[in-house]
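Researcher: For the annotation table, I need structure tokens for Flavin reductase. Please keep the output clean. Sequence:
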Amino acid sequence: MKRLEIKELSENFFEAIGKEWMLVTAGTKDGFNTMTASWGGIGWLWNKPVAFIFIRPERFTYEFVEKSDFLTLSFLGEENKKIHAVCGSKSGREVDKVKETGLKPLFTDQGNVLFEQARLSLECKKLYANTIKESCFLDKKLIEKWYGGAHGGFHKMYVAEIVNIWAN
């Protein structure tokens, strides 16, 4: 994979995150997990290029993100929707997602996990995290639509500095 500078990035992240989806991955060679995500964004905060993502505490990947200082966001392209389907519907507690999907892990100099199939990967260092709070919703209809029952608990939001960009 080739390293890009932030100024070389011209991605439409509305399309990439919302339609293509991404894999959120954390852990090391000795143990990691990945999950499909379609909520998040990219921007500028605290004079840094950042990504922000949301993970429910029920997700297995949450445990890995909590333990790690880093996480990666991998964009596999529309042609890999089947990988996203597995990584978004099956738990790493019960299934080896790498074996099930054919994902080919690569490891950065800092030991973070990328995938050979990714057309674009963002290597990110966590800066801030906080759980979404019911009392902070201004539009209460969102609580009913996205939380409780079969949906699960409130997401934890992570803001992470983009420290490296990798492209195929």
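Researcher: And a one-line annotation?
Model: The chain is about 20% helix and 40% strand.
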